[in-house]
Amino acid sequence: MSSASDSTIYDEILYPSYTHKSSHPGVMATQATLHGLRPAPVGNCRVLELGCGNGSNLIPMAYGLPGSRFVGADLSIRAVENGHEAIRDLGLKNIELRHANILDIDASWGEFDYIIAHGVFSWVPPVVRDKVLTICQELLAPQGVAFVSFLALPGAHVRAMLREMMLFHAGDTKDAAALLAAGREMASFIAGAPAGDLVQQALHGEAARFLEATPNYVLHDDLGEWNEAFYFVQFAGMAAEHGLQFLAEAEAIEMVDLHLPPPVRENLARIARGRLHHEQYLDFLKGRRFRQTLLCRAGVPVLETAAKARVPELWVSCPAKGPDGAIDLSPGVEVAFSSPRGPSLETAMPAGKAALATLINAWPLRLQFSDLVHGVREKLSAAGVSDAAVDGTAAGLAGFLLHLNSAGLVDLHCEPLVLCKTVSDRPMASALARWQVMRGNLVTTLRHVSITLQSEVTLRLIPLLDGTRTHGEIVDAMLAITNAPGVDPAAERAEMATTVAQRLERFASEGILTA
Predict the structure, then answer these.
(1) Structure confidence by residue, pLDDT tens digits, 305-325
(2) Neighbouring C-beta atoms of residue 439, cutoff 10 Å
(3) How far is CA 309 from CA 215, 318, 375, 393, in A?
(4) Model-level pTM?
């Protein structure tokens, strides 16, 4: 492993940096809270990211959580310097990106409430993997949480098969361009062959993924020197050797077996020897190829299943959609709800229907559990639902929301989030989004989600949303930018006004607007 002062392949070919919602301290804190810990408040915490790249993941966190402190470390000086530019331009004072080797990080860096190692563990030599866990052991606060992602078996076997084929085809070449060309040629060769049995079908899928990915990504991830996958119990064993234990997966939906037929769930409960084995057998059933695992210190009491009793401490949001028009809250009447992520639900539970209707109406805002209960009771009373159902709202709703969170239909949060639901007279996009859109088409929302903007109109609109212009002035500016020919100025202005209004509503829903 080279020292921090040496030029590396990551300087010659920059690794693409992205935002990872599941690594946000708010996600970690929520899972920690549900599983029995008392993690540091997200608004006042200390976060370390190993392999931070240019800060694409860490900088939006620092922007959204000005009361917290963020430190990133990366071996690529080019990436770190690019991050420094963003930090300076945005005027952030609570974040520091350091050009450093993971092997050189020690106790002098201080204690952290949350440690992130995304896209590192499976792509570095054993000595660095060991050091990642040592850093978590030595620098993690007593109630701290570490996020470590890695390639998981058995699913990653397919990825390894294609990697071995591509490297075989590349021969002894060390040239990045030649290596990439050989890899693409082999992936195309595989993708062009008939897909017969399940193995061939799986290889076809991997080849398609490789061919669609960006060159810099696959050079480092698929064709890099190190690429090693692990069974979950292997990883948990390595963590235990470093005084760490499995807390949860970052995404609750990854730990449930609700999608399995009852006989399979019964067999899983019978053959799995404890929580770690349950997770491993789930990986077998899913063919899981990638994990985003949360760790905490060994000895800290951890609840094996998320605690319903902790739900009233949280905030709730829901991106799902319900039926058009009024929702019938009567008992026994099933109503269907669907999530943009894919899951759907049909429920006849009056309080559940009222809760989802309230959350959908509030989106993208988060509602505190107590406020949600109050809103649900009001809806049930107005609908004439029996007093017994209204009185039992809080008790039943906590379990209902926990179930929906595990199914991916609602999100639970340990903190509120300041978002703009209603577009103001002088709309303002976040300074981060305005900075990003001047440099590309990838924008990070205030919910720590990356959005790729495809429309030229959208790319031109966001920089104008600095809070100084009225809607009419924004329309005028957009007409001037687009150089409309002026055949029918009134019609063109009306069309642009409609377009701007629609985009502003979408920006509010996505969490791009602050006013």
Answers:
(1) 999 999 999 999 998 888 888
(2) 10
(3) 47, 20, 20, 14
(4) 0.93
